[in-house]
Amino acid sequence: QVQLVESGGGLVQAGGSLRLSCAASGRTFSTYAMGWFRQAPGKEREFVACISRSGGSIHYADSVKGRFTISRDNAKNTVYLEMNSLKPEDTAVYSCAAVRGAGIYYSSNQYDYWGQGTQVTVAS
Predict the structure, then answer these.
(1) Is pLDDT above 90 for 26?
(2) How large is the average pLDDT for residues 105-113?
(3) Angstrom distances, CA of residue 42 to CA of 45, 83, 116
(4) Which of 115, 114, 24, 26 is nearest to 73 (CA)?
């Protein structure tokens, strides 16, 4: 089992940047593929980015491609989401998720463990 804790959210002006972190408990972090998802008020949770357990495979939602970067540091049990050129429509609660497996996973239904989320608000 793994516990996930996100940090780094906040209020930023449009065009600004934020870096989210997701710290995982346990000694088996490198066996988990990780993902970032977001949910805006009144909307369904949507996929943002995912990364394989080694970091060798990465995939982004079209809406964030070229602006967001997912990475991980297995030595620190942490996955990151660097967000640049933020837009008001990026405003949401961002959550990281983990699933034990060798691939990369785009659907929230595929993930077993979730953090509590961190609020990102982009002001226009």
Answers:
(1) no
(2) 96
(3) 10, 22, 18
(4) 24
Torsion of CA 101, 78, 61, 44, to 10 degrees: 90
The answer to whether 115 and 22 have CB atoms below 8 angstroms apart is: yes
Render the burial of 16-29: b for 16+ CB within 10 Å, e for the rest. eebebbbbbeeeeb
The pLDDT value recorded for residue 1 is 85
Q: Tens digit of pLDDT for each residue in 32-68?
A: 999 999 999 999 999 999 999 999 999 999 999 999 9
Question: What is the C-alpha to C-alpha distance for residues 80 and 88, in angstroms, rounded to an integer?
Answer: 21
What SS3 string covers 65-102?
Answer: CCCEEEEEECCCCEEEEEECCCCHHHCEEEEEEEEECC
Band of the pLDDT at 27, cuts 50, 70, 90? Answer: confident
Q: Which two tokens stand for residue 87?
A: 């837009």
Token pair 């297995």 is found at: 74
Place of tokens 């989320």: 117
Name the one residue in this structure whose structure tokens are 């949770």: 45
